[in-house]
Amino acid sequence: MLLALAAAALLAAACGVRFSTPARTSDFFQSLTVTGEMRTGAPLTAAVAYQQDLPVGVDVQCEIRQGKRLIKPLGHDTVPAYPEGSPKLTPFPGNLSFDFTLDAPGDYKAECYASNDQDVYIIKTFTVRGPALTPAATP
């Protein structure tokens, strides 16, 4: 039974079937993190790392979504062209970061993508809890 399951998984992988949604596509985006105290109203930061090896600039846009619904745009920036760049050269690493807050608790996803190529993106899911409870003052 185990052997049959392993063979089926290997066969599906060979056919290009994926069992989970990819967190990123392409080699441009390397990582996306969201840091801070994961509570409503607290300052949060989305940081995306990239490796540029293209001879053209890449316009990067980042936003916060719940499902397909846009909650807020985080910002955009243009990664400069890598002069005489090509996939054969060592890519130039860099990162962008965007500060933000969220007003409601829930499950969110940070998305960054190249504006000129919808197939180049990275997604990071995260959860924000309600505000921290403050202890009641004692008389």
Provide a quick synopsis of the model.
The chain is mostly beta strands.
If you had to describe this structure to a student in words, what would you say it looks like?
It is a single chain. The protein is 9% helix and 48% strand. It has 139 residues and is mainly β. A 4-stranded antiparallel sheet has the order 4-3-6-7, with no helix packed on it. Strands 1-2-5 form a 3-stranded antiparallel sheet, with no helix packed on it. β3 and β4 (69-79) form a beta hairpin.
Defining traits:
single chain, 139 residues, mainly beta, 9% helix, 48% strand, disordered N terminus
Q: What structural category arises from helix and sheet content? A: mainly beta
Mean pLDDT: 83
Helical content class:
under 10%
Secondary-structure element pattern, one letter each: HEEEEEEE
Say how many strands there are. Answer: 7
Biggest β-sheet, characterized?
4 strands, antiparallel
- CA gyration radius, whole angstroms: 20 Å
- Overall shape: elongated
Number of helices: 1
List the helices and strands and how they pair.
Elements: H1 2-14, E1 29-36, E2 44-52, E3 58-66, E4 69-79, E5 92-100, E6 106-114, E7 117-128
Antiparallel strand pairs: 1-2, 2-5, 3-4, 3-6, 6-7
